[in-house]
Protein backbone atom coordinates (compact mmCIF):
# COMPACT_ATOMS: atom_id res chain seq x y z
CA UNK A 1 0.00 0.00 0.00
CA UNK A 2 1.22 3.47 -0.88
CA UNK A 3 0.97 6.33 1.56
CA UNK A 4 -0.38 9.73 0.60
CA UNK A 5 2.10 12.55 0.24
CA UNK A 6 0.80 15.59 2.09
CA UNK A 7 0.92 19.12 0.75
CA UNK A 8 3.50 19.96 3.44
CA UNK A 9 5.86 17.27 2.16
CA UNK A 10 5.46 18.49 -1.42
CA UNK A 11 6.00 22.10 -0.30
CA UNK A 12 9.19 21.17 1.58
CA UNK A 13 10.40 19.25 -1.46
CA UNK A 14 9.80 22.18 -3.80
CA UNK A 15 11.37 24.64 -1.34
CA UNK A 16 14.42 22.40 -1.03
CA UNK A 17 14.70 22.31 -4.80
CA UNK A 18 14.47 26.10 -5.15
CA UNK A 19 16.84 26.89 -2.28
CA UNK A 20 19.39 24.44 -3.60
CA UNK A 21 18.94 26.09 -6.98
CA UNK A 22 19.65 29.39 -5.23
CA UNK A 23 23.01 28.01 -4.16
CA UNK A 24 23.84 27.57 -7.83
CA UNK A 25 22.84 31.13 -8.67
CA UNK A 26 24.65 32.80 -5.78
CA UNK A 27 27.84 30.81 -5.62
CA UNK A 28 28.35 28.12 -8.21
CA UNK A 29 27.55 30.18 -11.29
CA UNK A 30 30.08 32.97 -10.60
CA UNK A 31 32.74 30.46 -9.55
CA UNK A 32 32.21 28.31 -12.63
CA UNK A 33 32.32 31.33 -14.92
CA UNK A 34 35.48 32.57 -13.21
CA UNK A 35 37.13 29.17 -13.60
CA UNK A 36 36.15 28.75 -17.23
CA UNK A 37 36.14 32.25 -18.66
CA UNK A 38 38.16 34.39 -16.25
CA UNK A 39 37.64 37.55 -14.27
CA UNK A 40 36.35 39.66 -17.16
CA UNK A 41 33.38 37.33 -17.60
CA UNK A 42 32.58 37.53 -13.87
CA UNK A 43 32.82 41.34 -13.99
CA UNK A 44 30.38 41.35 -16.91
CA UNK A 45 28.05 38.99 -15.06
CA UNK A 46 28.08 41.15 -11.93
CA UNK A 47 27.56 44.31 -14.00
CA UNK A 48 24.53 42.71 -15.64
CA UNK A 49 23.14 41.20 -12.42
CA UNK A 50 24.30 43.43 -9.54
CA UNK A 51 22.10 41.59 -7.02
CA UNK A 52 24.55 38.66 -7.18
CA UNK A 53 27.05 40.52 -4.98
CA UNK A 54 24.87 40.88 -1.84
CA UNK A 55 23.43 37.43 -2.48
CA UNK A 56 26.87 35.83 -2.60
CA UNK A 57 27.90 37.69 0.56
CA UNK A 58 25.21 35.70 2.38
CA UNK A 59 26.25 32.33 0.93
CA UNK A 60 26.74 30.71 4.33
CA UNK A 61 23.14 31.47 5.32
CA UNK A 62 21.87 30.38 1.92
CA UNK A 63 23.70 27.06 2.17
CA UNK A 64 22.57 26.59 5.77
CA UNK A 65 18.92 27.20 4.89
CA UNK A 66 19.06 25.00 1.81
CA UNK A 67 20.84 22.25 3.74
CA UNK A 68 18.23 22.39 6.51
CA UNK A 69 15.39 22.10 4.02
CA UNK A 70 17.16 19.24 2.27
CA UNK A 71 17.65 17.45 5.57
CA UNK A 72 13.98 17.87 6.46
CA UNK A 73 12.93 16.76 2.99
CA UNK A 74 15.26 13.76 3.19
CA UNK A 75 13.74 12.71 6.49
CA UNK A 76 10.25 12.95 5.02
CA UNK A 77 11.24 10.98 1.92
CA UNK A 78 13.33 8.29 3.60
CA UNK A 79 11.36 7.85 6.83
CA UNK A 80 7.69 8.62 6.19
CA UNK A 81 5.69 9.07 9.38
CA UNK A 82 2.18 8.31 8.18
CA UNK A 83 0.83 5.23 6.48
CA UNK A 84 -2.23 6.75 4.86
CA UNK A 85 -3.80 4.85 2.03
CA UNK A 86 -4.57 6.85 -1.06
CA UNK A 87 -7.84 5.98 -2.71
CA UNK A 88 -7.77 8.65 -5.41
CA UNK A 89 -7.67 7.23 -8.94
CA UNK A 90 -7.11 3.71 -7.67
CA UNK A 91 -3.98 4.61 -5.74
CA UNK A 92 -1.97 5.84 -8.72
CA UNK A 93 -2.10 9.45 -7.53
CA UNK A 94 -0.09 8.52 -4.44
CA UNK A 95 2.51 6.74 -6.52
CA UNK A 96 2.90 9.78 -8.78
CA UNK A 97 3.12 12.18 -5.83
CA UNK A 98 5.59 9.95 -3.97
CA UNK A 99 7.77 9.58 -7.06
CA UNK A 100 7.68 13.37 -7.58
CA UNK A 101 8.81 13.93 -3.99
CA UNK A 102 11.68 11.44 -4.29
CA UNK A 103 12.84 12.82 -7.64
CA UNK A 104 12.63 16.38 -6.33
CA UNK A 105 14.75 15.43 -3.32
CA UNK A 106 17.50 13.76 -5.37
CA UNK A 107 17.60 16.56 -7.96
CA UNK A 108 17.79 19.16 -5.18
CA UNK A 109 20.55 17.21 -3.44
CA UNK A 110 22.52 17.02 -6.67
CA UNK A 111 22.15 20.75 -7.30
CA UNK A 112 23.12 21.50 -3.71
CA UNK A 113 26.22 19.31 -4.02
CA UNK A 114 27.32 21.06 -7.20
CA UNK A 115 26.79 24.45 -5.55
CA UNK A 116 28.72 23.40 -2.45
CA UNK A 117 31.62 22.15 -4.55
CA UNK A 118 31.90 25.41 -6.47
CA UNK A 119 31.34 27.60 -3.41
CA UNK A 120 33.61 25.88 -0.91
CA UNK A 121 35.86 23.27 -2.54
CA UNK A 122 36.88 24.60 -5.95
CA UNK A 123 39.15 27.44 -4.79
CA UNK A 124 41.12 25.33 -2.25
CA UNK A 125 41.41 22.56 -4.84
CA UNK A 126 42.77 24.94 -7.48
CA UNK A 127 45.22 26.43 -4.97
CA UNK A 128 46.40 22.94 -4.02
CA UNK A 129 46.87 22.00 -7.67
CA UNK A 130 48.88 25.20 -8.29
CA UNK A 131 51.40 24.40 -5.59
What would your notes on this structure say?
The protein is mostly helical and 131 residues long. The protein has one domain. It has five helices and no strands. The protein has helices at residues 7-37, 39-48, 52-57, 59-78, 92-130. Helix 1 (7-37) crosses helix 4 (59-78). It is elongated and about 50 Å long.
Q: What is the topology?
A:
Blueprint: H1 7-37, H2 39-48, H3 52-57, H4 59-78, H5 92-130
Give structural attributes.
mainly alpha
Number of helices: 5
The overall strand count is 0
Which runs of at least 5 residues are low in confidence (pLDDT < 50)? none
Q: How would a textbook summarize the main sheet?
A: none
What is the first-to-last residue Cα distance? 57 Å
How would you sum up this structure in a few lines?
With 131 residues, this protein is mostly helical. 81% of the residues lie in helices and 0% in strands. The chain has five helices and no strands.
Amino acid sequence: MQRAVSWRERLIGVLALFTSGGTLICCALPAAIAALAGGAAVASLVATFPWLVPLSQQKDWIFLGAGGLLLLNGLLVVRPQSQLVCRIAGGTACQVAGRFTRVTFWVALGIYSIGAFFAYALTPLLRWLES
